[in-house]
Amino acid sequence: MKRFLLAALAAAAGAGCSPARAADDPAALLRAADRWRLADEDVQVETRVQVLGADGGVEKERLYTVFVQAGHRSLVLMRSPAEAGQRVLMLGDDFWLLMPGSQRPLRITPLQKLLGAASTGDIATLSWAQDYAGTLVGEEQCDGAPCRHLQLQAVRPGVSYQRMELWLGKARSEPLRAELYVQSDKLAKRARFVMDRADAPTQVAEMVLTDELSHGRQTHVRYLSRRPKRVPEAWLNPMFLARNPGVE
Prior knowledge:
Keywords: Lipoprotein, Signal. Residues 72-241 form the Uncharacterized protein TP-0789 domain. It comes from Azohydromonas lata. The protein contains four helices and 15 strands. It is an alpha+beta fold. The longest helix has 23 residues, at 2-24. It has a single domain (24-243), classed as outer membrane lipoprotein receptor (LolB), chain A (Clam). The chain has helices at 2-24, 26-37, 120-124, 238-243, and strands at 43-52, 58-69, 73-78, 87-91, 94-98, 106-108, 113-115, 118-119, 132-142, 145-154, 163-169, 175-181, 187-195, 204-211, 218-228. A hairpin with a 2-residue loop joins strand 7 (113-115) and strand 8 (118-119). The protein is globular, with a radius of gyration of 20 Å.
């Protein structure tokens, strides 16, 4: 009985102070930010990537089906005619490119370019809480509204960016913008996150990437749809994919 009472008191005390702790806990803030980008552990995301020219017109466009699965696993199917039959598989820190007509998966890095400023890691990984350790820098103003500034350091070698500066809305912890740094600690890209609705947002609809290493050109990564989807385990094997090019 005494153990039960002690446990109940501890739980009540924790519940009473958890909101305040969560507001300043970088790990909790990252988990909250992730929910705006990825609502389920196993999900299918239809994605459109567009490269814009100096006049704002679309220069290039590609379509991708991305299966994001629990345990740092993702499969990207390339849908556009120019890339037909190509697939990218991510398992933890390992990335493979599978080309049509070849039965040998090619090792690549998460910074392998897909189109414009968008790399394989930009569309295959959607979790910050699992990939980074965060430090809360403090509160700032973002476009006239209060926001929180976090510094993120990678905890796994296979992530695209070793360091990030991330700004989240203070009230809802939605991602607003980020600065993305590569291994050499050089600023590679800036990201801006566009919500689905300005008045009552429910999820991130688009990520706009500005390539700081290539004259500031913009690439728009648009999430056309998301739905829960768990793929067969066999699809997450590079040799199976190489032998079965018809995986859809």
